[in-house]
Each structure stands twice: as structure tokens, then as C-alpha cells.
Amino acid sequence: MQVFKHGDPPVWVEIKNRKGITVAVLNDLHIPFHDERALNLACEILRDVQPNLIVLNGDIVDFFAISKFDKDPRRRLELAKEIKQSRETLKKLFEKFTTVWIYIEGNHENRLRKYIWNRATELIGLEELELENLLKLKEHGVLYLRQLDTPQPIDQFATPQVKVGLLYIAHGDTFRLNANSVGVARCLFLRTFKNLLIGHWHRADKWEQMDYEGRLHGCWVVPCLCYQRPNWDTGRIWGQGMALIEVSASGFFRVDVVSFIKENGNLLAFVGGKEYRTRR
Ligand SMILES: [Mn+2]
Question: How far is the CA of 30 from the centre of ligand 1 (A)?
Fold first, then answer.
């Protein structure tokens, strides 16, 4: 498996492989609002699957303390605690699975940059405050892909993504679908006409079709690994889970969006003919 980086800092990477590979995608942990049980279930699955690449596909940390939304002002003082907890949670993950890790920035990671731009201009350019340094990603050999603030030519990208075979992986916030979209996967395909896997929507969704020549096209949406009841919208229907992707040497692929099902207070998932369960 070879990883080709594009841009400096790298904005997107292309994975080329001589043999088939398995890729796992984890999305939207929103640490400190991650669900430990869901994350543990994901780890049990990863232990069996042993992916060649794990993509942390954005909104892994929440940065609640510096969001622009209303909150108890005391929460603004908890940034240091949130970052520490994120660093510790991720460290455990990285140490559990020695494989290739790529971290794609989401809109929540971007909150830090926006905060510094708008509220702490004097701190711009301090490398120590870059997220990959705050989370010590380089120490763990994790490649961090970040957003650029200027438009790029058509053959490059201003938003972070990974291309594995014929499939693009991106966080998903920058595709600008209507916030009330129901068929997210299909809407996304009709916007991009590309094979694309995103998170950001905190739900499982897929839309795939064969074309006239027998090639698969589609879009897939990865569920979240955070708590599913925000206080700002009781009508949210969020799902937990992850995605597993098998990619052949020719670039063709199969996506398995794995939903974590609530069963008598436990979480249940089916992968490769096996049942996975959290224990109470
Ligand atoms: Mn998001």
C-alpha cells in the first residue's frame, strides 16, 4: 500500500495498492461527547478486521468550549480539559491498532482555527496550537489532512480527502446539502457524480447503482460514535456505527456501512457473518 500526499500541508492523499486492502472509517466521535460503549464495539470489530488503513473522518473532537453556539459560560473554561481528554482517548486508540492512520479534519476541528483567527489573532502561526500538535498526532505517526482557506485548481482540493481506489472519503460538511435533507447519499451523488463516502450527518445511508457497463457508482454515509441526543434538536434521528471498505488492486470496492443496533440496552452489530455485542 502506498500513500501519495498532495499539497504542503497535505490536503488530500491517494492510496494505491498492489494487493487488495481493507479500510475502516470512524466518524464523529465528538470527544468529550463520545459514547464509550459504541467506541468499544468499534474496537472489537477492528480487532477482528485488522484494517490496513483506519481513517478518522472528522469531528473526532468537539471543541464545545469554543463553539459559537449558546452555552453555560462556564463550559468555555473547559477547553484544556477537552483537549486533554481527546488526546488521551486517541492515544489509546492509536496504541491499540498499529496500522496506517489518517485523520481528516471536520468542521469541529476547524473551530480551533476559526477561534484563533477571530478571537485570538495574536496567536496565529503558533505551531504549538495546530491541532495535530495539540493532539500529538505526529508522535503516533498519524497523517493529518487539513482544510485550505483559498480555492485550488480542479485537479487539487481545498478540503481534506482520501482517495482509495475509485472511492473518495471526506468528512462531508463542505458539500452544502440542505440541513433537512432526507436521502443524503442520493442527494450527494446527484451533486458530485462521484463515488464518495462521508460522515458528518450522524446517520447510516447509502445509495448505489450499477451503470450500463456493470460498474458500481454510489455514495455512503457513515454513522457517528457520539451520544445521539443533542439538546438543540430533539427531532434528530442519529445512528451509531462505522464503515468497512474492501478495495481490490484494480480500485474497485465494496462498502459495508455497519450500524450499531440497540438491543435490550446493549449494542449489536453484524460484520462478516459474526455478531458483536457490548456487555452491560
Ligand atoms: Mn461535521
Answer: 9
